[in-house]
Amino acid sequence: MRSVRRRTTGLAVAGLLVPLAAAPALAAAGSPAGTGPATGADVACEAVLAADDREGQFAAASEATGVPTDLLKAVSYMESRWDQHAGVPSTDGGYGVFNLLDRAPDVPDGAGKGGGARERVSELDRAAALTGLDPARVKSDAGANVCAGAALLADHQSAAGRSVDAPLARWDAAVARMSDVTDFADRVRATLREGERRTTDDGGTVALAARPGVAAPRAATRAASDPEADCPPDLGCEWMPAPYEKDSPDLPDGTGSYGNHDQADRTGEGGPSIDYIIIHDTETSYDGTVRLVTDPTYLAWNYTLRSSDGHIANHLEADDVGWHAGNWYMNMHSIGLEHEGWAGSAGWFTEAMYQTSAELVAYLADKYDVPVDRAHIIGHDQVPGILPGYTKNVHWDPGPYWDWDHYMELVGAPAGGGLTPTTDVHDGDVVEVVAGYDANPVTGCEVASPGSEPCVEGAGTNFVLAYQEPSLDAPYARDPGWKPGGADGTTYASDVSARVTSGHKLVVEEVRGDWLGVWWAGSLVWLHNPAERPVVVPSTGQTVTVTGDEAAGVYGRAYPEEAAYEPYPGIPVQAVVPIEYTIGTDQTYVVSDADVSTDYYRATTFDGSGPGDRTDVRGEREYYQLWYAHKQVFAMADELALHDPVVAEVSGPRVVGQAHLGRVLRAEAGDYLPASGDVEIAVQWLRDGEPVAGATGERYRVTGRDRGAELSVRVTVSAEGYTSATFTSAPTGPVTHR
Q1: Can you tell me the distance from the alpha carbon of 261 to that of 245, in angstroms, rounded to the nearest whole number?
Q2: For strand 334-339 and strand 258-259, is the pairing parallel, antiparallel, or unpaired?
Q3: Residue 138 belongs to what H/E stretch?
Q4: How far is the first Cα of the chain from the last one, in angstroms, to the nearest whole number?
Q5: Angstrom distance (rounded) from CA 592 to CA 628
Q6: Are 721 and 644 spatial neighbours (Cβ–Cβ below 8 Å)?
Q7: Do the bridges between strand 377-379 and strand 276-281 make them parallel or antiparallel, or are there none, so unpaired?
Q8: What is the pLDDT of residues 342-370, one digit of tens each?
C-alpha cells in the first residue's frame, strides 16, 4: 500500500519565545564579545565524540555545554540540516553540522571572471579553542563539530551576559551571532515551532519535536527590500540594476552594439510571457558575479544570491529579457537566478541561500503565474539546445549537488507531492522520481568546474542513474544530444546523460523485478527501484505517442510557423529545426506543458528602431513541452497523439471489519491522483470476484449467501479531464459464522 509522507519546513516566524527545560550550566565562563576564546576553559567533549549517532551527539553536547538540546538542533538545522557534508566546506567557507566558518580561500572561476573572498572571522578556530579540539578534527568529524558548535553558542550566551539556564527568549543575541543571516534567530524560532525530522548523512535520524508554544518576536527583524526590487517586501533584496547601454556613447541609438540585456513588455500585452524560472550557479564569488552583471559589455540575469546569508540582488525588471540561458526562446520566457557556488563542488549550497531563493521563487511564481513544478522551475542543465549539435554545449549548472528535493519542498511544491516512494508500480504507469539526497559517484569535478576542487566520495547528490540494461553492472544510459558520438553515460561531473533528477516524470514501459524500464532520450533505459530504497512515486499526467509511421522531431524552441511573420516584413522568419533527438513510434513520454507559448520576440537594436523590433510574433502552431532525457523539450502537436491523464492510485481500497455472518463491513475507498476532492468514486462489493447486486454503498452486511465466500470491494475513480480507473481491494478470508 502507498501512503503519504508528511514533511515540515520552518520559514515563517511568530511570537514571543517560551523557555525550554533548564539545562546544566557551562563549566567555564565565556569570553567577552570580540576578545577571542576563553583560555583554560575547555568544554569536555569526550562523551560527544563517543556518541553513536547525530542524535546522541546533540544530547551529549547539551550535557557538556548547558545549551538546550532542542536549541542546538534548531540552530544546526538552519546551518546544515544536521549534515557533516563529508568534511568539505560550504560555499561560504563553513564546515560541518554547525557550518563553522573558516577564512574562505580566494577561488578563481577558471574563466577569467575573477574571485575575491570577503574577510571573515574564523568561527572554527574560536570554537576549536573552546573545546581544546584540533581545528582539522572539527572540520572532519561530526561529533567534534557538534561539540565545538555547542561550545561556541554557549560562549556567545555568556558574552551577552546571560546564563545557559535562561529562558529561550533570552538566547536571541547568542543565536544571532552564529550566522551572517540578518533574521537567523527568527528562522531558528520558526524551526522550533514547526519541528523537523530527517535522515542525516550518517544514516541516522534526528528528530526535533514541534514546539507550537514558541511564538513570534515582538518586532520584525527582517530587513526591508529596496522599493525598486521585485521581491517580497521583507526579504531584504537590494536593487542593483544591470546597465542597458550602447557599447560606445558615440554609436547611434539604432545600433545593434549594446548590452547587457533587452527591453521588453513581459508583464503587459506586448511582450512574451514569463513561463519559467531558471536556477543557475555563478562559478565565481558573489562579488565577482555582481561585477559581471553590472558590466554593460557583459550579460545580465535577474537575481544574484549570496551564499553566506542568502542576500539577494535584483538586476532586471521583470519586463526585460536577460541573457542567461543560452537559448533565446528560454530567455524570452524566463527569470534567471544565479546562486553563488560551483556546479562541481561538493562544497554544499547553504541553507540560508536555499531558503531565501525558495521564498523569492514562490513569490515570483505566484506573481507571474509560473507553474510551481520541476518542468517550469528548472536548472540551466534542463534547457535544450537550439540547433543540432548545440545541446552538448548547454551549461550543466546548478550541478549534481543541488538538492532539488529540499529546494522544491521549501518553494512549497515538494517533488512527488510529498508521497512516499514505492515499488507498487505497473506497466503503463506514470511515475515521478524522488531521488533523495544520497551519495552517487561523481568524478572530474575540478576539471569540469575549475574552482570546485576534487570530488568528494560520499557527498550527497540529488539524482538517480539510468542504465542501459536492468543491472547495476550495465553501462549508464546514453544521451545523443549530450554525447552525439553515441558514447555511454559516465560519472563525470558535467555528464547529465544518465542523471534523472527529482521531479522528473516518466512512463513505465516495463517492470522487471526491482527495475523499471522507462523511455529516455529515444531509448528504453532502466531505473533501479528496490524495496529497501524506492525512488519513484505514483503520478499522473498527459502523455504523447507518435501518430504516423515515422519518428517525430524534437525541438529546442517553440517558434511560430512561417505565416506568422507575414504581417512583419522586417522580421526574418526564424527557422524551426529539430535538434538531436526523436520520439520513436513505440515510445511514450509525459507532457510537462500542453499550452506552450508559440512566439518569437524580436530585439536587435538599442532603441528598438530596427525593423519589427520589440515585437512579439505569435503563431498558431501548437507544441507540447515534454519530459525528455535530462531536458525540457518541445514537439509539434500535429505529429503526436495526446492522451488524457489516467487516475492514479496512491493507496487503494480495502475492506475494514471481520468477515463473519451478521457483521457489517466497511469500504475504505483509498487515495488517488488527482487529489481526493477532485475525484468521484463509485463502490461495488464483490463476492468471489463477482458483483453483488445492489451492494454499492460504503457498508455491507454479511449474509448467509456469503458463507464460505471471499468478499472484496471494487472502486471506479473518475475525474474531469482524466481517464477513469478501477481498483480492487484484497479479499477477506472466507466468510464464517464466527
Answers
A1: 9
A2: unpaired
A3: helix 135-140
A4: 28
A5: 10
A6: yes
A7: parallel
A8: 999 877 888 999 999 999 999 999 999 99
H or E element at residue 655: strand 654-656
Phi-psi region of 493 (alpha: psi -120 to 50; beta: other; left: phi over 0): alpha
Determine contact, residues 142/54, Cβ cutoff 8 Å: yes
Determine the number of helices (DSSP H) and then strands (DSSP E) in the chain: 13, 39
Half-sphere exposure of 461 (CA within 13 A, CB side): 24
> How many CB atoms neighbour CB 508 within 10 A?
20
Q: Are 236 and 360 in contact (CB under 8 A)?
A: no
How far from the centroid of its chain's Cα atoms is residue 550's Cα?
Answer: 36
Q: What is the rounded CA–CA span in Å between residue 508 and residue 240?
A: 47
- Of 141, 154, 99, 106, the closest CA to residue 124 belongs to 99
| Cα 173–Cα 177–Cα 178 angle in degrees, nearest 5 | 125
The 3-state secondary structure of 553-592, one letter per residue: ECECCCCCCHHHHCCCCCCCCCCCCCCCCEECCCCCEEEE
Q: Using CA atoms, how far apart are residues 674 and 469, in angstroms rounded to an integer?
A: 32
Separation in Å, CA 677 to CA 114, 645, 718: 54, 17, 11
Calculate the alpha carbon distances from 714 to 170, 285, 545, 669, 720 in Å: 59, 59, 30, 9, 20
Q: Are 172 and 214 in contact (CB under 8 A)?
A: no
Query: Which amino acid would we find at residue 282?
Result: T
DSSP state of 459: -
CB atoms closer than 10 angstroms to residue 603: 23
Rounded CA-CA distance 305/104 in Å is: 17
Q: Which residues contact 633 (CB under 8 A, 6 or more apart)?
A: 384, 554, 555, 556, 579, 581, 625, 626
SS3 content of the chain, % helix, strand, coil (to 5): 20, 25, 55
**β-pairing verdict for 303-305 and 334-339:** parallel
Half-sphere exposure of 613 (CA within 13 A, CB side): 14
Average pLDDT, the chain: 90
Q: What is the pLDDT of residues 595-643, one digit of tens each?
A: 999 999 999 999 999 999 999 999 999 999 999 999 999 999 999 999 9
Pairing status of strand 671-673 against strand 648-651: antiparallel
